[in-house]
Amino acid sequence: MDNSDMKQIQWFPGHMAKTRRLITSNLSLVDAVVEILDARTPLSSRNPEMDKLTRNKPRMVLLNKCDLADDKTTQLWINYFKNCGCAALSVDCKSGKGLKFILPTIKSTVLKELMDKRAKNGMTGAAIRLMIVGIPNVGKSSLINKLAGSKRAKVEDRPGVTRTKQWVKLDNNTELLDMPGVLWPKFEDQDVAIRLAFTGAISDDILDIETLAMKLLSYLAENYPTSITERYKIELSDEDTGLELLEKVGKKRGMMISGGEINTERAAITVLDEFRSGKLGKITLEAPPQKEQ
Ligand code: G4P
Known about the structure:
By secondary structure, this protein is α/β, with parallel strands linked by helices. 39% of the residues lie in helices and 12% in strands.
């Protein structure tokens, strides 16, 4: 992608250092770490330092928002993480789909050794403590709310807004450590930033909205052509540029401004909104690497 027109996203070094400290200093309080990723962008929505931060702590990956992701590719991602030695499950924290498998999977895989040890020592009743981590907007609050079975007030995950760490007790003798602080994505990679902007995980402001929508349409035309031909009733040609695709959508939707010009800004907002809300279908923005890294 040509990203020369991108603005740099600002993250805060002081805030990052604090989050790093919080995670490492609280690791000893938990039995395992549950890392939530976006099933549409499993690598882009990962914190680049997660391996280093969680050291050897048993870890499980949840591919959240699987209702919005391509099922076939989600399965490839689950296999990918399993091949990397990390248990993985796909979940939908909006509907609650898949959540009932989290604890059994943790007990039978990542915490198997601990469970066996506890069984041997007659301590099967001891609580399981899990740290929940993930970049902003990935679904941490939704997961905790669903598991806890009550609407807990969402506190903004924003640099500068402090909140203290909270333990959330579940009925099944599990305790979740809801971490304060913000986990940053791999922000120095601009393609990653663009994928995160497509999903709305980071602000649209990194690019102007039309450029963002053009890039998304080009990706969809190449990888999920029926998502746009069916939704917008447009025909695609191999030579279509992002702008031409955006104009086709705008024209078809009757988004015109005076003088017969197409309102590409309105078309861009529509395309991004419809993609994010799943109206264009179940779409994944990145496939697992061919070879293990
Ligand atoms: P965070 O704590 O990690 O920052 O994320 P949070 O749970 O606040 O979720 C961010 C947005 O993602 C919310 O939407 C939430 O509803 C949505 N979300 C979380 N999990 C899923 C999922 O599995 N599928 C889908 N489709 N959406 C999910 P929002 O628009 O910010 O709020 P609202 O729609 O809940 O009002």
